[in-house]
Amino acid sequence: MALLLTREDVQALLTMEEAIQAMEDAFRQHALGKVTMPLRTSIAVPEHRGLDLVMPAYVAGEGGGLGLKVVSVYSENPAKYNLPTILATVLLQDPRTGALLAIMDGTHLTAMRTGAAGGVAARYLSRPESRRVGLFGAGVQARTQLLALCHVRPIEEAWVYDPLAESAARFAEEMGERLGLAIRVARDPRQAVEGMDIVVTATTSRTPVFDGAWVAPGTHITGVGSHTPDSRELDGTLIQRARVVVDERRAALSEAGDLILPLKEGLIREDHIAAELGEVVAGLQVGREAPEQVTVFKSVGLAFQDIAAATRVYHLARARGAGMEVPL
Hints:
The chain is α/β, with parallel strands linked by helices. The protein has two domains: 2-110 and 304-326, ornithine cyclodeaminase, domain 1 (2-Layer Sandwich), CATH 3.30.1780; 117-301, Rossmann fold (3-Layer(aba) Sandwich), CATH 3.40.50.720. The chain has helices spanning 7-13, 16-31, 77-81, 107-125, 140-152, 165-179, 236-241, 249-255, 257-264, 277-281, 303-320, and strands at 2-5, 35-36, 41-45, 50-59, 65-74, 86-93, 100-105, 132-136, 157-161, 182-185, 198-201, 220-223, 243-246, 273-276, 295-298, 324-326.
């Protein structure tokens, strides 16, 4: 018997507080060598502007887990099919036996763990007094990024920019009401960067969404949108001047165009990557070195994050009697 957990179940069980704690623990375990995780396998579906990914991982120790996520990224979904850009399912197994423990919706889980990772990064890399946020993108990922930031920093004001003005306006209204926060729509990309303490990019753009020269000293930037070698949201100017922290070096150098393209252009070398986030969380590397330093957290998303979050959801479901047992 496996436990079936719907999107509604996952939404009810996984709060942002729980997700941030799960991600902080998972990144620490990763730095301590307790994660086994092959690079994900990808299948492009170019005629539908889609990408399908298979992401397995094993996190050893207490709170760890075993399993895989199947995730699709289809940029035309919202406009053509009224579906999220990202759709996912997680299969969670018992590490002791390999038996299937749960099948759960991974779409909300993916958004929450990505937002939570951004929150962990901001906790260790942004200035503690950070209060103003600029957001690029007005979708699900931008929502969970802002939600996480409000858990780790005293955020008072946010600006959102999206090429679709109606999407930005809807984001500002919905998230402003949800968080009790002043959220304004930026008229252009520059207005979402200048004067911000934290900037988040959560778009499907294949080219940089703002000029890195606009970023003020002391700003922290989280980039979560681009995840292929030939696409980037952050330009070489920003990457070159920033202290760069990634979720994993191997994955970033294989998948993150934000770093691969500046490497090809000769703007940086591989050692420009200062640390992995887990190394910072575990105290093995320094995060922010000075108040005026610009920091970047580049995330491509890793399977161990999904398994850690799914394991947390599974234990919460068992404790609360949520979900439905299904025979296979």
